[in-house]
Each structure stands twice: as structure tokens, then as C-alpha cells.
Here is the input.
Amino acid sequence: MQPMTFDRIVVLGAGAWGTALANVVARAGRNVTLWARDAEGAATLMKTRMSPRLPGVALEKSIEVTEDIACAAHGDAVLIVVPSQTLRAVAQAIASSLRPGTPVVACAKGIERGTHMFMTEVIAECAPRAAPAVLSGPSFAADVARGLPTAVTLALRDDKRAAQLAQALGSATFRPYHSSDVRGVEIGGAAKNVLAIAAGIVAGRKLGASAAAALVTRGFAELFRFGKALGARPETLTGLSGLGDLILSCSTVQSRNFSAGIALGEGRAPDEVRKSNLAEGIDTAPVLVELAKAKKIDLPIATAVAAVLADNMSVDEAIGSLLTRPFKAEH
Here is the structure.
């Protein structure tokens, strides 16, 4: 396969993460087009060059902003940066415009409701011409947009092409490590969101640092068990997109999932939290548990989080269910 230059990058989604990625890729010297979903949003962004989702962060001057999703046809690679439950609609909208073999990179961390599909599976089904890929890892939009050092994982089944694309997107402060373990990277991103809600509940209930450390450790055991059962590589699960992202998401209120968990732990109703928080883990939790049950994988923490979100169990009942599990060997 001939080396690919990836000079033109299209970013679909002008939220905080999409804007941050557009900025960092433009700084890497690529020609970037940023698609905004609605005309008003695109017009405002073009005029002000300031994203309302990232206060104080200016859009790089070289970035072209558009409301025309057909811009995807001109990309050497396309980054889809929309919530996981809306990714299907975007993938369908660009399917006929793509050139064969164009990498289409899912930048959402979740599993689709109803189908139990991971994001690259949705892309493959909706856009057969695409080469599905995923970008995930310990990263906050504000840090990336401001040029603070960040490392993530970029996975594409063709490892050589993954390396070429990582080189095109990367810079001194944004370092994509490439991988061909697409499923492993997706599992880490999806599962850690659910576990971060659990960590937030621990913080909101003021259960202490010891409980927080135990939760993250046992949560990672669940993530690893789930990933191994679905064919992920151990080194992926212990890497940036697995353990690395879990540590970040379970440690700060910058994480929407952690913040949602804090709200639950402080006593706010699940419906109230769902309406006021865009945390991906809220939608992913029940799907993750359904998939685990189908595969006969034991995920007690994720199951407790799903039960709380469904209002089938109180926070205290969920905590009790975990603390009264039988004692057993750690491994």
C-alpha cells in the first residue's frame, strides 16, 4: 500500500471535543474543515472564531467552518466527533460521499443502544466504503485545545495506515500512539465511562480515599475481564485507552461521568442527572451490562451503576450490594 499523506482532515462535530481536535490537527499543519450541525452555529463560529463550548479558546485561523456535511467527501480522513448515540445518523449522511478506503475515525466512547454495536461497527454497517477507526484515551477537550501535553490511542485494523494517520494528526503536545486493536480501544473508552460514574458516586457519598482506590482497582478488573472476553489485547487494556483513561475519568470533576456520579452520590435523582449531564456513561451502562450478561461476564460495579441509573436500586442499596458480595481470592 502506498503511503498516505492525510493532508485534508474533516472533523464532523463542533462541540468541545470536535473543536479541540480541529485545533490540534490544524496546528500539526493539516488542512482542516470543521462541520457544525446547524447553520446558526456554523455562522457564529465563522464570525467569532470562538467556541461557546470552550470558553477562552480561539479557533485556529486556518480552519474552515461549514454546515455542509458533504465536506466529508474532500477529506483524506474524517473524524466523527458526535455523541455515540447519534453517530449512526452522521455515518449514514456521509456514506455516499466517501472515497473507498477513507479512514473514518469514531471519537465517541460508547456502545449503541439496541444493537449493542461498538462505534466502528456502526461505521462499517452505515458506510461500507470507510476504513473504520477509533481515537480514544485520557484526554480533556480543554487541555487539548490549549496545547497541553496529551497522549491517546488511534486504532485502525491496518497498522501501517494507523501509523501514517497518527503521524499526520500528532504533534509535540498531542501524541497518538497507533494500534490495530480496534476493539480493545473501544472497550476501554466505553467501559471506563460507566466506572467513572461509580467513582463519582463514591466521591459524592464521601466514602473516602480508600474506597475510591478500591473502586478504581476493582473497576479495572471488570474492564479487563470484559475486554479479554471480547478479544481485546491485554496491552491495550493496560494502556492509554484502557487503564490510562480510567484513571483520568475517575479522578476529576472535569469528567462528565465522574460529575454525574457525584450528583447521584449526593442524592440527586437519576432522571434529573440524565437531563442535566451529557455523560456518555449514562447511556452506555445498560448496554454494557446487557452485552456482558449475553456473554456471561460478571460486572458487579457496572451492574450496580446501571441499576441506580434505571432507578431500580438506591445508591445505598447499590453500595450495600457490592460490600456484601462473598469474599474471594483477588485473581
Remarks:
- DSSP finds 15 helices and eight strands in the chain.
- The radius of gyration is 19 Å.
- Strands lie at 8-12, 31-35, 64-66, 77-80, 103-106, 131-136, 150-156, 174-179.
- The mean pLDDT is 95.
